[in-house]
């Protein structure tokens, strides 16, 4: 640990949680560097102005908060829908889609400010460290990468807390939420110790974006989603921008408890992990989009594209968004989407979304 290389300026991914807060003074001391924090708004529904102030109060010299929502939808989530990107058949990949955009923006910020290193607050066990670092390496091979959680001396949250108190860091006043949450427009991941037992049901209070289906409103709601060339553009005849459309679907499906996912997935690092996700809008939109493909694609294209979807999902999961294979598969997918125009009728009721109708000017049904 003695005499680490020193840096001038470090751009650090910042959420305002305990880890990334402790990282600021820790990196300043260890690397003698100025810290620029970067926070991207992907629709996590947090008070990001408060996050920005907190970063400055914690010792950042510059705290950047960007509204990335529209760019996120257009450059990542609509491609996700067109691709049918669902990992291991279940997980719509919300966290995985967020990382390359955040990492890309951090590189841009590093260039603007003449920084010489990039830092993230991911642990050594998950996929996110890989997604950040693969993107950093692809876009800025000359910048150093710092991952304090893999290096530092704090073995427990209590030790981090002690450090935070000793350094007068602004801490959350409320009792720590026991869940580790990553939430934005495309969904939510919930992690906590007790869920490591695969037989344990998630407690009712763990869920954030969806109501308990057993307490859902009675009856059902009808909706019609219109797609143009594979992209959802209107609901019930009302045209909407992407962010608004996704928020609308999250609200409606979430109210009926649609989009809860409890899965055991294979991580990049070779571990299996139990994951709890909520993805109300992603559930509806993937389902409706695939339904249109069923009537607009011939059999060979439909089945071939399912294989491509699986490979594409693995690429997104692995974090190689900026690699050549993703671009090549994207070109294939774009080509297939030309006839994916039309409408899908869905009925949403407690815990369930069912397709009740589909139509398209390009339907091959006779
Ligand atoms: N296992 C999921 C993934 O790799 C979710 C990760 C959630 N990340 C988080 N920081 N809570 O995409």
Q: Which ligands are bound?
A: arginine
Helices and strands, in N-to-C order?
A: EHEHEHHEHEHHEEEEEHEEHHHEE
Distance between the termini: 71 Å
Across the major sheet, the strand order is: 3-2-1-4-5
The percent of residues in helical segments reads 40-55%
Inertia-based shape: globular
* Average residue pLDDT: 95
Q: Assign the structural class, choosing from mainly alpha, mainly beta, alpha/beta, alpha+beta, or little secondary structure.
A: alpha/beta
Q: Care to count the β-strands?
A: 14
Low-confidence sequence ranges: none
Note the beta-strand portion: 15-25%
- Main pleated-sheet profile: 5 strands, parallel
Count of helical regions? 11
Radius of gyration: 22 Å
Task: For this entry, give a set of tags.
366 residues, alpha/beta, 5-stranded antiparallel sheet, 11 helices, 14 strands, binds arginine
Structural account:
The model has no long low-confidence stretch (mean pLDDT 95). The chain has a 5-stranded parallel β-sheet, with helices on both faces. The chain has a 5-stranded antiparallel β-sheet with strand order 10-9-8-13-14. The protein has a 4-stranded antiparallel β-sheet with strand order 6-7-12-11. α1 packs across α7 and α8 (242-255) crosses α9. The protein is an alpha/beta fold and 366 residues long. The chain has 11 helices and 14 strands. Helix content is 41%, strand content 22%. Bound molecules: arginine.
